[in-house]
Amino acid sequence: MINVKIYESVVNEDIKSEIKEADWCTDLIQYTTSKCKIDGLIASAFLFCPQIIQVNDYVFIKKFWNCSVESSEEQVCRLEKQYEYNKKSIEMSVNTWSIGDFFVGDSDELMDNEKVIQQFGEAIAYFWRCRVKELFPEKKIVVELGNNLMGEFGLCVTMYQAE
């Protein structure tokens, strides 16, 4: 007797029903490859597997680290004073990002669809977890979703080291 197992994607294939323009295609892969050109898919890989910067023992998403390598030490000192050396708060202050801010200027109705926003957030969190686990297997880095974190609006993704 054959033993067959299907391991589900991080993205629920039923989300396709929330995307009106995807009715014609058989699955999300077909939709993706018809909607996005190869350059967009490469850029998506960069989003889902971002550059990470480590400054001393702090770990940040490089995109959110708004200073040069040369001024990183000074910036960390400012953050340590501001957040009273609380590593979680320091990392969250840099690594928290509103999911909606990834799409600033996008007026597509999908941006108002909570299921789609949640699915995107879950995908980002999944891949960021994989990324930091690969880079820092010895660290306990948490990537999570939450609402209105660190002054951001709506569903947010954040990353920090567990104490």
Throw out a few tags for this protein.
163 residues, alpha+beta, two-stranded antiparallel sheet
Folded structure, characterized:
The protein has 163 residues and is an alpha+beta fold. The protein has 2 domains: 20-49, no CATH class; 50-161, no CATH class. The chain has 5 helices and 5 strands; from the N terminus they run ααββααβαββ. The strands form 2 sheets. Strands 3-5-4 form a 3-stranded antiparallel beta sheet. It has a two-stranded antiparallel ribbon with strand order 1-2. A hairpin with a 2-residue loop joins β1 and β2. The termini are far apart. The model has no long low-confidence stretch (mean pLDDT 90).
Question: Short description, anyone?
Answer:
The protein has helices at 28-35, 38-48, 72-82, 87-95, 114-135; strands at residues 52-55, 58-61, 97-98, 141-147, 155-161. It has 163 residues and is an alpha+beta fold.
Topology:
Blueprint: H1 28-35, H2 38-48, E1 52-55, E2 58-61, H3 72-82, H4 87-95, E3 97-98, H5 114-135, E4 141-147, E5 155-161
Antiparallel strand pairs: 1-2, 3-5, 4-5
